[in-house]
Fold this sequence. Notes:
This protein is of the alpha/beta class.
Amino acid sequence: xxxxxxxxxxxxxxxxxxxxxxxxxxxxxxxxxxxxxxxxxxxxxxxxxxxxxxxxxxxxxxxxxxxxxxxxxxxxxxxxxxxxxxxxxxxxxxxxxxxxxxxxxxxxxxxxxxxxxxxxxxxxxxxxxxxxxxxxxxxxxxxxxxxxxxxxxxxxxxxxxxxxxxxxxxxxxxxxxxxxxxxxxxxxxxxxxxxxxxxxxxxxxxxxxxxxxxxxxxxxxxxxxxxxxxxxxxxxxxxxxxxxxxxxxxxxxxxxxxxxxxxxxxxxx
Length: 269
């Protein structure tokens, strides 16, 4: 079926539901460059104001997930578990937790993000280490996982390429704190990792995207439901980010002084 992007944009602008084929059309054509940034920015703003229900968010996640390849880690027999944060000022938990978990005999394949809004990104922090590479090929990533149980990379032209483009555009269009867009961005990366389990650290407070506990709980609910929809065991933890995590803020400082503390509330779904 042929679609017209403008018709789909108007449909979402007036608050109507998009069907799976329309969402797939948008993501496919934005990924290959057929839809320019200025038009897709309008779509992001329509989603920001009109939202997406759970089914639409699931279809958006699926379209972004299959915009590229997914990992096959069947050769690795140990449990494959990842942890992902929705982002907060001074958030450096992954820098400490991932190596600790890997040292306990768990494989941790981690596709992380860059800075978004006022929050720092794990990739940017790691790249403040001279010579540290996060742009590994899929083969290099698998080799590293087999060797040390841990690998941290960003979205690539192979893995979640749609999210790579959309992630950057959200940052400059004021559409960061949208629950459907956050959910699809995070889960399209996580579901590409061939995981057995996923732990989500959902931040709330003035140092996070979700300022209220209520909104963070809603986001956590969406994330966990999407994980279960794709048959990945998923739990979420809500973390208070009304104060920075740890003693330092800034990419290189958080590498040098990675100690962290925060108030957490478990939210299991």
